[in-house]
Specification:
binds flavin mononucleotide, 41% helix, three-stranded parallel β-sheet, single chain, 162 residues, Rossmann fold
């Protein structure tokens, strides 16, 4: 079994023991289409917050809206999340949802998640990832751009190195 599955199992067991409810969004199991097609690409660069969205994207945004806390569990692949998850951000964090600009040019968001936790397993040691700066660059991108940058109030990242 993949280590990330073990992490998911332990994490959800902890949630159950603590009496929390949760939904697992396994992108492979749900066959999530991570590839941005040209229709949605045109939508995203059109900067129209009310332009229609694909149904699978709406379903994912509704899932996020139901959550107080988001947890992302994935292996580090070439110093980032796997493309499957990167494509989830590309497609689900849409203009008009994750960010948009009001009439005064101020950046806004519709995401009201309180907290996010990111758990990444890695083939390197955490010491190595810290020493060469990869851990910090991953934190900056994942926490400050993809999470706090779109309105998540608090976010932290844990590396499970070898
Ligand atoms: C395509 C690929 C790229 C990887 N890139 C990295 C990397 O950049 N840094 C790292 O520390 N580990 C890297 N690894 C190792 C994985 O992070 C490690 O094997 C994984 O966390 C184990 O979890 P899993 O069993 O759920 O895949 C890579 C593994 C694969 C398959």
């Amino acid at each position: 079994m993949f280590f990330s599955k073990e992490v998911l199992r332990a994490f959800t067991e902890g949630l159950r023991e603590a009496g929390h409810t949760y939904e697992v969004g396994d992108l492979y199991k749900m066959g999530f289409k991570s590839k941005m097609d040209s229709e949605q690409h045109y939508r995203e660069v059109g900067l129209d917050p009310d332009a229609p969205l694909p149904k699978d994207v709406i379903r994912e945004q509704e899932k996020v809206d139901r959550a107080d806390v988001l947890a992302f569990i994935y292996p580090v692949w070439w110093s980032d999340c796997p493309a499957k998850l990167k494509g989830w951000f590309d497609r689900v964090w849409t203009y008009g949802y994750a960010y948009y600009y009001n009439k005064n040019g101020e950046r806004q968001t519709r995401i009201a998640v309180k907290k996010a936790v990111v758990i990444c397993s890695a083939g390197h040691t955490l010491d190595y990832l810290e020493e060469v700066g990869i851990a910090e660059s991953m934190r900056r991108i994942m926490l400050y751009d993809r999470l706090i940058g779109v309105g998540v109030k608090e976010a932290k990242m844990e590396f499970l190195g070898v």
